[in-house]
Amino acid sequence: MDALQHLRCLPQVDEVLRGELGQRLLGQAPRWAVVQAVRGEIDRLRQELLAGRSAPQDEARRIRLDAARIEQAVLRLSRPGLRRVLNGTGVILHTNLGRAPLAEAALARLRDGASGYCNLEYRLDEGSRGSRHEHVQALLAHLTGAEAHLVVNNNAAAVLLMLGGHCARREVVVSRGELVEIGGSFRIPDVMRASGARLREVGTTNRTHLSDYEAAIGPRTAALLKVHRSNFAMVGFTHEVPLAELVSCARKRGLLSLCDLGSGALIEPRTLRPDLPAEWTVPEAVRSGCDLVSFSCDKLLGGPQAGILCGRRDLIDRLRRHPLLRALRPDKLTLLALCATLELYRDGRAKQEVPVLRMLAVGEADLRARAEALATRCRALGLDVEVLEVRSVVGGGALPLGQLPSFAVAPAVSLGPPEALHAALREGDPPLVARLAEGRLLCDVRTLADSELDEVAAALRRAVNVISGRSA
Ligand SMILES: *Cc1c(COP(=O)(O)O)cnc(C)c1O
């Protein structure tokens, strides 16, 4: 038979859907996914035949479809695109993995407040129109000590609004050593340009003195800006001007003092573990007298993606009237989760209940026990694994020098090449993202919950099966 005759032996999509395989899949998955998977498999076989290769046929000389392939495709197609993953990287604030996992209280508030209606912009006491920005004011005043606050979509938006609202067409003086890039999409000079403010760089990469700022001040200057370096550290021959000195210089010269604090810790990370580097906290920045401070809510704070501006009431009020705010304002989901997270801080429950803080604080003995528990589950599934001592980083533009001792479970090298294993793990459901180091695949347990260990062991078992060609 030639290729053309073979092509005629390919089944039609409808025929497959009416058949046993089609009916079974239609009972498990939406029709569109089954249709697309079947069509994909028929197309694949057509390409094979056109390329001169043969395809298996049944008794009736119809070309036989690969049922396992179709089932896999149906599964892949019907899974949500954005979904939960198991984080075995050990990086607590992994921007690519959604940064901070939310506290139970935040999740409960989301469900409670968003499954029906909520008083987002409604004053319950007066029965009149309210503002979405009101709900966090008292909470934030308690936690930061600032006069006024404004929540926006993220810290990049906070910086954009702060500069656009108060420094447009005027100059903002920034140290060269603080012109940071955070993860490619946020660069201080670019955000400044977008805001309409003009950047005036001062100092050198490693050293900037107060006199550098002072020399740069002129009639067009609007503000002195300090930026937290966040994801890198400078060591050696360095000098930077402390925020308090910048603030007093700005005040003397009639300028605004602004600070992009980056991570926005509400409590000093060293109170969680003494081996972490010192970090400026939001209340410290506010106490220094800085006019406006901006920070992220999904870094060390451990809440939903949002950015907060805090500082002088007159400056915040002006930003509330800025037309950009309408584009940058947070939605009800963010505000619900943020309020619940901030309440944990207010009520002294954050260290126990905010996952980011818990993962930072967890001790080595607990991590070792968790790694051993995971290894035991893996061995019960017949996997040869080892428990290794590793070091993990905090990540996500926070605590660049913070190397945390941790424990990881590593499958034996004999189980397969780590890259192939990792690819199979990422294909799993739920996917597991691990870390590759020194030729090994590591599942760092710092970022895995005790409740996830069964899933992790099962994921490893499935991935080993997949790469060794056994049925998953
Ligand atoms: C992380 C960070 C940002 C960006 O914050 P997002 O909340 O991700 O928008 C801006 N500035 C600094 C210093 C940061 O660390």
Can you give me a brief rundown of this structure?
By secondary structure, this protein is an alpha/beta fold. The chain has helices spanning 3-8, 13-18, 20-26, 31-50, 67-78, 104-114, 137-144, 155-167, 188-195, 210-216, 243-252, 282-287, 313-320, 323-328, 332-346, 350-353, 355-361, 364-380, 418-427, 453-467; strands at residues 86-87, 122-123, 128-129, 148-152, 171-175, 181-182, 186-187, 198-202, 221-227, 256-260, 292-296, 307-311, 385-393, 403-411, 432-433, 435-437, 440-444.
Could you give the topology of this structure?
Elements: H1 3-8, H2 13-18, H3 20-26, H4 31-50, H5 67-78, E1 86-87, H6 104-114, E2 122-123, E3 128-129, H7 137-144, E4 148-152, H8 155-167, E5 171-175, E6 181-182, E7 186-187, H9 188-195, E8 198-202, H10 210-216, E9 221-227, H11 243-252, E10 256-260, H12 282-287, E11 292-296, E12 307-311, H13 313-320, H14 323-328, H15 332-346, H16 350-353, H17 355-361, H18 364-380, E13 385-393, E14 403-411, H19 418-427, E15 432-433, E16 435-437, E17 440-444, H20 453-467
Parallel strand pairs: 1-15, 5-8, 5-9, 9-10, 10-11
Antiparallel strand pairs: 2-3, 4-12, 6-7, 11-12, 13-14, 14-17, 16-17
Helix pairs in contact: 4-5, 6-15, 7-15, 8-9, 18-20, 19-20
Bound molecules: pyridoxal-5'-phosphate.
Residues 154-156, 159, 180, 182, 186, 227-228, 230, 260, 262-263, 296, 307, 397 line the site of pyridoxal-5'-phosphate (PLP).
